[in-house]
Amino acid sequence: MGEEPNDARPEPSDRVPGDGPLNRPPQGTPGAQNGANGDSGSGTGGGGGFGGPAPWEAPAPGATGAQGAQGASSAPGGSGPPAPGFGPPPGAAPGPGQGQGYGYGSAPGPGPATAPGWAGAGTLPPPPAAPPGYGPPPGPGPGPRGDANPAQAALIGLLNLSCLGLGYVVLRNWIGAALCWAATVALLVLALPADVDGVPAGLLIGYGVFLLLAAADGARRGLRATLSLGAAFRRLALPLAVVLLAVPAGGSLAYGAARDEAKEQALLDRLSAADAQVKSADGLAFDKAEPILAKALAEYEDLGTNKADSRAGKLVPARLDAYYESVSAPYKNKTYCEAIAPLKHLWGLDGTFDKDLLGARPAKTDEPLAHSLYECGTSALGVYTATPAAEESLNELYDTFPKSSHTTRVEPAVRAAIKTRTDALDSGTTPCDTTNELRTLRRSLQAVSDAALDGATREAKDAVQRGDFACGTDQFKDKDFDNAAKTMTGYAKEYPDSPQAAHARSIAIAAEIADEEPAAGKSLPPATVPGGSRMIMVVSNDGPGEVELLYTGPMTGKVTLKACTTCTKYPGPILSQGKKIKACTGPSSKYPKATVLLPAGDYHLLQKRVSTGTSTAGDTKTSKAKIEPGYSYTNCLYVTSGF
Hints:
This protein is of the alpha+beta class. Helices cover 44% and strands 8% of the residues. It has helices spanning 66-70, 150-160, 166-171, 174-191, 201-222, 231-244, 246-280, 286-305, 311-327, 329-332, 336-347, 355-358, 366-379, 390-400, 410-427, 431-447, 454-477, 481-494, 501-516, 573-576, and strands at 534-542, 547-552, 557-561, 593-599, 601-609, 619-627, 633-638. The chain is rod-shaped, with a radius of gyration of 65 Å.
């Protein structure tokens, strides 16, 4: 019989992944067919010029043994042993269950004679299902499952860890790849743009678990999968998978950097907001500005201590310098009283603010604060409406800065203020205003607790006494008789031991008479009683109620007469019908009397009767009297009705 063509072909599992028709040995060439005879031709090596497989490539099943033996055929015309797999060696009986020929032998047993070259086979082998190499090409997707390949599984898992689902792409598992893409896009949508809070921890944990599951699933699927990849790509796949791990790592680092920048920007925004609060407090009264400044300080302190390494935290010291500069602006503007409150605020921060952050700034306010207290306190001396009062600032200066150079300046400044006002009593045109200033100054000094001002306090007291007398005198001269009487009456009561007390009483009496009879206030009563002879004037009370007789002239004074219990009012002009009133015509003992010794001269008299059942308080009557030398006089005081 002639030679039959060998139609046997390798099973799909025997193919090298990626091999196609172009990768098979040429058909019909010498050695390409398997013959039974040793001289039927020589075989050629199979494999077709490809390099060795990558580490994750499984060797094709059946690639060893038959192919290697086939490639060992002799050259044309030569002789050699038959190709392995084509029957037992000559003279060897087939083993139990061993097939004959190229895997198509029959079970042992009797049968018809075999054709030459079929190693004792009784019949021809059945033809293969199809000629070798002429089956349909492999379809898309991973090839049939082969032997386990851990390196390939690791490759697919690493590719899936890149967040891009590339492992599923290699496996052509588009559903898995789409899930990876959707998860990554969702994460990017939720995470970008980066903000201070960042991505919720639960979301990151969930995404990380998803990536691990995708990697594990990809490794499971790739363990036995046959990949349709070129040899060059196979060699680069694993390094590429490792490199692609930089995608999530780099993205994480980039996102962390973006989040850090967002945090820095948020801190800078807080710093800018605090700066704006400080600026908004400019021009406000400090009691209204202080709550605003407190909020700004709280921000500065938090940024400078808890966020000290941030860009905003490093700017806090400069902001504190600007804060001190802004708050202490009234001192630089020399509005010292206005500067006290903000300077006290700055000086007191040492006890409420972080000391390391403040440094020596509070101590730098000692001198400005002491200076402001001195200037404000001394400028308020004698100013009744001053706020704060002089004693408030001076007491604080003595208590807070007892050794300050400004403290030693207080006493000279006080004495100078007293002297200036005392000199103004004599030469000034407003002694009453000056006296009020001296009185206010004295009250302030009396409220200062430091003994250093005791001497100045006594000087202020003497100056006030002098000012009261000057004020009353000036009021009399200005015809302000009512206030002059009050001022001089008060002077006489407050300073009874004063050498000017008697004169003050005279001025008060004269002012009271002049308030009813202006002619009596043409000139001040003399400070001393004139000498020479004096005339007697007997004054009697012929009216109800007690009566005072005030007189002023060469001498000024008053006498008080007790009430006449049996005396009544005399009828007025209507009821008397023009009859002359004959007062004090009864027995002399009936009328209360008083004797007055007066120098010669013209006098103005004023009788003032107190309230009784038949008279009212304030009943007054003025009169004049001329006292001449060598005479004695009587003066009867009575009351007439209105009719």
